Amino acid sequence: MRRRDRRWDIARNGVPKISAQDCRLIDLPKVHDPRGNLTFIESINHVPFEIERAFWIYDVPGGTVRGGHAYRSTHEFIVALSGSFDVMLDDGSHRVRYTLNRSYHALLVPNLIWREMINFSTNAVALVLASSPFAADDYVRDYSEFLRLRKIQ
Ligand code: TYD
Q1: Among the residues of the chain, which ranges form H helices?
Q2: Average pLDDT, the chain
Q3: pTM of this prediction?
Q4: 15: which residues sit within 8 A by CB, 6+ positions away?
Q5: I need a labelling partner for 50 at 20 to 30 A (CA). Which of 40, 109, 138, 146 fits?
Q6: Which residues line ligand 1 (CB under 6 A)?
């Protein structure tokens, strides 16, 4: 039986109880090897949701801002596979900034968290594991609408 974090089920059902403090860095296993290090992610052990999509962002021109939205229901797990970038997270009350620059650190970002990704280094590759398939209507791109959705929780 798959392990489940109850709060995530609640969030998925549209009653989010999560905040920017619930965004956190997760240490992934690192297998040290003189031939080159290896890190892995196991859905059941490291990711508190079922992974339904993976995408990656790369070839980002200097100075670019990505994101600038929240998701109504999608949770994400973000890893800097290469290079570095900053992820700015906002739950409507608190803002936190993470610099991702290690391929064995994953940033957990629940739904209804506004995010921006900035300061991409030239070689940056951002891997994102997501809890749902792509759906344009899951995006909240208007900040006032985001605040309204946070308030009704
Ligand atoms: P978007 O999520 O807005 O990028 P970011 O948040 O990194 O700035 O996505 C950019 C475009 O790519 C948008 O037109 C939707 C499309 N897209 C997909 O078709 N599938 C996907 O899985 C994702 C993440 C985006």
Answers
A1: 6-12, 43-46, 143-151
A2: 89
A3: 0.89
A4: 153
A5: 146
A6: 53, 55, 57, 66-67, 134
